[in-house]
Design a protein that fits this description.
Elements: E1 8-12, E2 15-22, E3 32-38, H1 49-57, E4 61-66, H2 75-90, E5 100-110, H3 112-123, E6 127-133, E7 155-160, H4 168-177, E8 183-188, H5 202-211, H6 228-247
Length: 252
């Protein structure tokens, strides 16, 4: 259930981040597992409400945020935002004060946000589990830190087989090089890049990307062979099982 009344804010050197909080329908004082989710390049938190609703429905608190400069192609703005979001939720001004299990925090993101989640998870031991949806593994555009390959945190990567923005081969090659002994790779047959997003937001994001000079003029996603609902269902099944396994063990 989304908190419709409040927009939350936190800051770091990049500027001010706006955030939305999704909580399980049944509120309690129990310290819950929590997921931090961040959007893709030129997107925003409002484009991923299905993920917030999904996580809350499975008993997670979820914080979705928007980076200060959505068109600035530096993954550090995303990864630093995840770490600052954790600081905010664990701090004295937290809207979930006393209701977060600090040992059960996950990071998740789409595209640039997926790369940001990987970077944050490689640096911040508070992050116990990572999911990257079509992470921006694009060496020709963004440097992939070498330390990511030595990550020990459990990692799940998902990619659509028809993704035209992030080549599935890039993601699989990156996955194969990861040293983590706990890793999962899901290629969604017939899925593409944009169908990880809310259906209503996809056309807007496509227009943003096509106008961007960063990824090249005419840079377009592949044509999906499955519906939004089908891709969401497959993706949800993967990341919910992953988070449940790594963040809910030992919780009664």
């Amino acid at each position: 259930m989304k908190d419709e009344k409040l927009t939350h804010f936190f800051e770091n050197k990049w500027g001010t981040y706006s955030a939305a909080l999704y909580s399980p329908p049944e509120e309690s004082d129990t310290a819950r597992p929590t997921i931090i989710f961040v959007h893709g390049f030129r997107a925003q938190k409002e484009y991923y409400s299905w993920i917030g609703d999904c996580l809350a429905g499975y008993g997670y608190s979820a914080l979705l945020f928007t980076v200060p400069s959505k068109g600035l192609p530096n993954p550090r703005q995303w990864s630093d935002g995840i770490r600052s979001a954790i600081d905010y939720l664990l701090g004295n001004e937290s809207p979930l004060l006393g209701r977060i299990n600090s040992e059960k925090i996950g990071a998740m993101g789409h595209s640039m946000g997926g790369l940001g989640a990987l970077i944050a998870g490689s640096e911040d031991p508070r992050i116990k589990c990572i999911v990257g949806l079509a992470p921006a593994v694009l060496p020709e555009h963004f440097a992939v830190p070498r330390e990511l390959y030595s990550i020990s945190t459990p990692v799940q990567l998902q990619i659509g087989s028809k993704d035209g923005l992030i080549p599935p081969g890039n993601v699989k090659a990156f996955f194969d090089e990861l040293n983590s002994t706990q890793k999962s790779y899901i290629e969604i047959k017939g899925g593409n890049h944009m169908r990880f997003v809310d259906k209503a937001a996809t056309l807007m994001i496509g227009e943003y990307l096509s106008r961007s000079g960063v990824l090249g003029r005419g840079f377009k996603d592949g044509r999906a062979d499955i519906t939004f609902e089908e891709q969401h269902s497959i993706s949800e099944g993967g990341f919910v099982e992953w988070f449940n396994h790594h963040l809910k063990q030992g919780i009664q």
